[in-house]
Structures are given as C-alpha cells and as structure tokens.
C-alpha cells in the first residue's frame, strides 16, 4: 500500500512538473508576442509623428 501511494505521488508530481513546463512555455510565447507588439506599436507611433509633421507643413 505504501509503495502504491508513493508511486501515485511521483506520477502526480511528474504530471504537475509537465503542466508547469507547459504553462512556462506558453508564458514565454506570450512574452515574445507582446515584445513584437510593443515593437510594432513603436513603429506606428513613429509613423504617426512623421505624418503629423507632414500635415503641419
């Protein structure tokens, strides 16, 4: 009985570790996407600033 309980705990631990890895991977992908979006937003802001200058003149 004790061994069966230990095995179950190890299996659950392995599943938990796998789940944490999946969440971590998803987190890293989300950060990468946000970084790309941040870059795109900066680019749009620069374009808008240039457009504003063109419209002023």
Describe the structure.
With 57 residues, the protein is mainly α. It contains one helix and no strands. The longest helix has 55 residues, at 2-56. The termini are far apart. The model has no long low-confidence stretch (mean pLDDT 92).
Rounded to an integer in angstroms, the radius of gyration calculated over CA atoms is 25 Å
Helices, by number, come to 1
**Biggest sheet architecture:** none
Helix proportion range: over 70%
Average pLDDT reading: 92
Which regions have little confidence, pLDDT < 50, spanning 5+ residues?
none
Q: What is the general shape?
A: rod-shaped
Strand content: under 5%
In whole angstroms, the N-to-C terminal distance is 84 Å
Question: Structural class, from helix and strand content?
Answer: mainly alpha
H/E topology pattern: H
Task: Please provide the count of β strands.
Answer: 0
Write the layout of secondary structure elements.
Blueprint: H1 2-56
List descriptors.
single chain, 57 residues, mainly alpha, 1 helix, 96% helix, 0% strand
Summarize the structure.
The protein has one helix spanning 2-56.
